[in-house]
Design goal:
The protein is an alpha+beta fold. The chain has helices at about 10-20, 30-40, 45-60, 85-95, 100-115, 120-125, 130-140, 160-165, 180; strands at about 65-70, 75-80, 115, 140-145, 155-160. It has 2 domains: about 10-85, Winged helix-like DNA-binding domain superfamily/Winged helix DNA-binding domain (Arc Repressor Mutant, subunit A, Orthogonal Bundle); about 100-180, Orthogonal Bundle (Arc Repressor Mutant, subunit A). The protein has a 3-stranded antiparallel beta sheet.
């Protein structure tokens, strides 16, 4: 048992907090359960873990620069919105793994039309996408989600859970829609009802 000098409930909560903190990506309740089970840390249910996660979330609602956020079916510590400019500047300086314009375009097509074949992506972009799709697979922003039921059974691509983490969303339903970018000042003619 870890933290023998602490009460069992507090010890368990600290173990859960440590797992969330140490995870590079969002970590699910089931993953936490499996780790706790494998280490023999505690006999706890997934429901109890969820209650502890809620308590951790409430703990960080106070005067902290970070908070516990639910992302892509899991939990992750992220800096709070009021620190966006500061953290964004750090990310700009560290942007070694920045996505190219071609990668962003390809990723957007896959995100909005998933599951989609490479040929369909190429038809939309009008250029070969072999290299870009390979780089997105290497960065684990997209995954192979199966094969199409058409001639030749081409590979289907979809976004990955890391894509959700990377863009800070829970599901593809949270992707911006075209109407979110519509600007009335750019319309021509009169609107009809």
């Amino acid at each position: 048992m870890f933290f023998l000098d602490l009460p069992i409930v507090e010890s368990l909560q600290l173990n859960i907090e440590a797992l969330i903190f140490a995870s590079e990506q969002s970590i699910s309740v089931n993953e936490i359960y499996q780790v706790l089970l494998a280490t023999g840390t505690s006999s706890v249910t997934e429901e109890e873990i969820s209650l502890h996660i809620q308590a951790i979330k409430e703990k960080y609602e106070g005067n902290f620069a970070i908070g516990l956020v639910e992302l892509a079916g899991g939990y992750q510590f992220l800096s709070k919105k009021e620190y966006y400019q500061l953290v964004n500047q750090l990310q700009i300086q560290r942007s070694k793994k920045k996505l190219s314009q071609a990668a962003l375009e390809t990723l957007a097509i896959i995100a909005y039309r998933q599951p989609i074949t490479k040929l369909e992506v190429e038809q939309i972009r009008g250029v070969n996408c072999d290299y870009t799709i390979q780089k997105l697979l290497e960065k684990e922003l997209i995954t192979i989600s199966g094969k199409a039921e058409t001639i030749g059974k081409p590979i289907l691509y979809s976004t990955s859970p890391l894509f959700m983490d990377y863009f800070g969303i829970n599901s593809s339903a949270e992707l911006p829609q075209l109407k979110d970018f519509a600007n009335d000042a750019n319309e021509i003619g009169e609107q009809q009802e």
